[in-house]
Amino acid sequence: MSINIMDTYNVSSCTTCGGGISRQQKRCRRKPCKGRTWNYKYKICNLQPCSTPTDPRAEQCATYDNRPYSEQLFKWYPYYDPSRPCALICRGERQNNISPLSSASKADERVLVNGELGSAEEYTESTESIVAQLADKVQDGTKCYPGSHDVCINGECQRVGCDLKVGSNKNKDACGICGGDGSTCDSKYAWTLESTSACSESCGGGFKIVTPMCKSTGPDSKIVDNSMCEPESKPDKLLLPCNTLPCSTKWLTGEWSKCSVSCGGGSRSRPVFCTEENGNATSKIPEYKCNVNHKPKFQEICNAFSCPMWEAGEWSECSTSCGKGVKTRSVECRDGKGRLSNECDRSQQPRAEIECKGASSDCSSRVQDLIITCVRDDTGKTVMPLLCSADTKPESRIRVCNDHPCPPRWNTSEFSPCMSPCGLGIQTREVNCIHEVTRGTGNTVVVPNHMCPQPPPVDRQYCNVWDCPVQWSVGEWGKCSKTCGGGVKKRKVICEQVMAQGRKQTRAERDCPTPRPRTEKECNSRPCDQANPAVKPIITSKNVTFVQEDPDRKVNLDIGGQATIFQGTPVIKIRCPVKKFDKAHIVWRKDHEELRKSRKYKINKKGALKIVDINFSDSGVYSCWDNLIFEWVTTDWSRCSQSCGGGGFQMRGAQCTVRSVKNDTNDTKMPVRTVMGPSLCEDAGLPVPEKVRACGTGKCPQWHTTEWSSCETSRCFNWKTAMQRREISCRLAEETSEGVDISTVVDMSKCDESMRPPQRQECYNDACKGVWRVGEWSECSASCEEDGIKYRILQCVWYGTKKPAGNVCRNLPRPPVMKTCRGPPCAKSSDDCKDHSKLCGRVKLMGMCRVPLYAKQCCNSCHQDKKV
């Protein structure tokens, strides 16, 4: 038989009034004792009513009034949850929205029953109130329910019998005797507790009032007048929990609204309510009463497909080599998947055809040929050259024309391949302003862009503007959660789609291909005591001498001492007994040369070295190294990607290396440093060095411009259009110690060329109009007394000047540049002017003297009228 002897120790104090609980502590003195070494006994004490009613549960809630909850302050009041009577559950109202009602105005039987306070105060329901569990358990001795004697001890509701002992099941009998069986009295009437009210709630936990009733005893028990029962044994009125099953709450949703846009990614919303079903009625309740994790979404993206866009192809060559022509290109409407569509905005459709001019022939030293044709005198029609006399054919003449150089023009290359296969790609090309000094290859030079007509042709354009396939997008791995002992690295993995125009759209994970990339991975797995650099590893070597006796047996050795081994021994195993170090990182060397794992040498997970097939070449000094130093070795920082503006960055490389601490300062043969994997340095507790950092935080130089030149005095550029100019400089703004802002002119290359403001612009000038300027007539091209042509030079110039105006005058009436003329009179000589034919009279009568051949043969006859 085993006897347990307990010592009784101090008894805890009790509340002064209102019914409290005291605890007696006991300890087991001898073994064996069943259960715990310490034991406790509880009892009810000081049941006399307090002069001022108090509520321990309300006092416990009030202790949280000045503690922030969800970053707000609440005033807390007791809240009774029948399913958790011993948890400290309180109802909180914002400090600025409290509306207490006196207990007198709410003095129903749930609040004050026979002088015992069930709830300190009642408060009006407010949208600003919340219900929260502030502690897992109330203080020992707190009553489980209002009006009940049962108390909470260590978070559990304990029954209290009529003998006021915790855990007792005794009840008063019909005679009012605690624990009695009703045999001690002759009364035919007894008090019984009867429910006199319906449950206050149909679900979610309510209370019902239990009132003492006087009933007759026996099989025909009936309620009688209360005076028939003993008033001294009348029990108290009680509140008992009822309908403790939670109410059925659920989320209800309304209809989705119309999408905000028809394409390109919009949003739509719908109302979402938390509701409670109580019988056949459904009512709206605060959202915190529903499961927030299951709340349906009230807003979502809609019409996420890209809007159709116009796509324009390359311009064709000009349709004519000279004069006015047209250039054409293809213009198509395509949707986000690259398919033809008819949903594009017609008002935004690019032009598919523009006017153009053929290769200019009004500049760069061209030549003109004199065109000579054979015509009939009577009709003026061109005939075959054989019908004209070769002797009378004028000489061919060539003259230089338009010998002024051509103006600068734009020269463009072909567009490069698209930089992206989908989403929003870009194509670029070279665009240069060139000046063709004279015709021919190699006679053009690149000049500043402002010398060419503005604006310049585009040097980039969008391409492959359609939606990309849905795919996973992964972020960078974050820092390890622990420096040792096994941590976790995390990264973001989202399913998204790059839409046309480059916008990213999140998609459901089921739309992405499988498998899904990992979001977590283990890191810093080595034990913390081994990763602590302050704990130095220790190798326990044995300075012994070993001589092998059996050449067929495997040899096991510990580091330290000497060993003599037979040639042909199958295996030698050398252990390196090290403490406070990860043995997997032990490094072995033979004669100061590091050993790598091979068919000859093997290193197991415990760091032991195995040598197989022993021969004479295996003789040497073998050593193991434990005090390895892991270090990060970094390169120099790269040049800053951006010298100013705060948006630059620098990069550098970082490698994890390991080196051994040399115990022998005369040892110079060991390698100094070995590159290892980055996880070893992380396992050693070394933080990963910064590989990217911001740079170029200073201010950037900015472009500065002067005022535009006056349009009235600017050089004419087109019809009623002049070209204004202004000065451009690159300046760096600085602030002196006195707070005065100054700017310094710096080299143009310091400013962003892409942001360079234009140096010239067109403006309206009414004086810029072209006029035709004519030269003097040339001499007549005909010989004596013959018909010929006179020429003069015609030039388009700006009004009031002699400056060439190009083709500005093309719509003005063009003055003639040539006219007919008569050659000077011929020198008369009677000897030379004779008729050489008998038919000259007929030639004259037929009017054929105007034909040069007949006029020469019949000179006298054809000139008789002139002589008169």
From TrEMBL:
Q: Which UniProt keywords apply?
A: Disulfide bond, Repeat, Secreted, Signal
Q: Which InterPro entries did the record assign?
A: ADAMTS/ADAMTS-like, ADAMTS_ADAMTS-like, ADAMTS_CR_3, Ig-like_dom, Ig-like_dom_sf, Ig-like_fold, Ig_I-set, PLAC
Q: Gene3D superfamilies of this UniProt entry?
A: Immunoglobulins, Thrombospondin type-1 (TSP1) repeat
Annotated GO biological process = extracellular matrix organization
In what ranges is there compositional bias, type Basic and acidic residues?
506-524
Q: Where is the Ig-like domain?
A: 551-624
The protein's name: PLAC domain-containing protein
UniProt organism field = Trichogramma brassicae
